[in-house]
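Progress report, Aim 2. The chain analyzed during this reporting quarter is listed below.
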Amino acid sequence: MIRHKKLILYIAYTFSITEFLFAQEQKTSDYTQNIPGVSLKFEMTAIPGGEFKMGSELTDPGNKKDEGPLHLVKISPFWMSSQEITWDIYELFVYQDFDQTKNLGVDAVSRPSKPYLDMTFGMGKEGHPAVGMTHYNALQFCKWLYTRTGVFYRLPTEAEWEYACRAGTQTTYSFGNDTTKLSDYAWYRSNGLESTHTVGTKKPNQWGLYDMHGNVAEWTLDQYFPDYYSQSADKIQDPFAKPKTLYPHSVRGGSFQDDASSLRSATRHSSDPAWKRIDPQIPKSNWWLPEAPFVGIRLVRPVIPPSKEEIDIFYNQKPIEDY
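Predicted structure tokens for the chain:
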């Protein structure tokens, strides 16, 4: 009888462990995020945790000083949007009329001021990546999504972005070193026709992420420091340079305006006050970058979400006033 009970307990224990592991596996599977109240959605790709060498060697073609030294980084698992966020979705955030008429309870979320010019810059809207938003604007979009869906979304850290872009590789691009293949994966200066393009029309990387090279550059969560890597310890877990000033923030991926070198997995870009140069407002807008039709958004969702208190603090940071 005792042996029988032990056997039952062992089977129950084994089953519970299997159930837990299965649940964990399910939790980190790809999924589709539907947006309540509308027939819009976006795809989230599961990115496994792991280690990678961040940056580039001095001998790498196109190497820049801010990409070194090459250092080992550990990354926790997360989900990343398989494509850049499009105007189809972003416009719901910009214009709050829909939320108010449908009584979806999110009209209290801070929204961008109505842009005084066409922020698509005539390049296309349906299926095209949303562009020209400030870093603060991008974060408030994440807050709006959280209010609509109940799911915590944010921008990727610079380390998460490069890790996801590389997709297990250490080559110049996620597909290798051969620049002649770049047109298969990216819209850039040579084939971009000076315009954004419908997302997901080029080949994805090995982890199923589209347009990591080119189309539009993408905001990351980090402040940009040119010497940041020289201050980083080896094997650091989930590094993040917390922003304390308005400029510059780190931008990754390159855009339709950039040459091949600017689309490398290791290439770092930084935001610039000149992106607001023609803004007539004083102080300048917290929301729009009238001279940045090349920067957009890709989302991340950590597998282990922050607490409700941490989420509230994260989303409710006051904007840093521009000059």
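DSSP finds seven helices and eleven strands in the chain. Residues 1-26 have pLDDT under 50 and may be disordered. These observations will guide the mutagenesis work planned for the next reporting period.
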